[in-house]
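Write out this protein's structure.
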Amino acid sequence: MDLIQEIRSRLAILSPTRLDIQDDSAMHAGHAGNLGGGHYSITIVSSHFCEKSQIIRHRLIYQALADLIPTKIHALSIRAYASNEQPTHTPL
């Protein structure tokens, strides 16, 4: 299983209605402090995020991916929306 599939599998616990994952690693080649992990952007929409702050939403995502950071994931850009919210960013 490649890493994007692994991320998708782990975030399935949040029952996303939308999950876009983009590998941005090529844009960060040679990044100082990177021990080999990739850079990823995630847009996720889930009912699990209803009535939760952005901090709690991010914590839920980081909990699901914790053992992948920082070895396989060096940086993670997260856009997390509740299912009753309209995403304000264009898709990845």
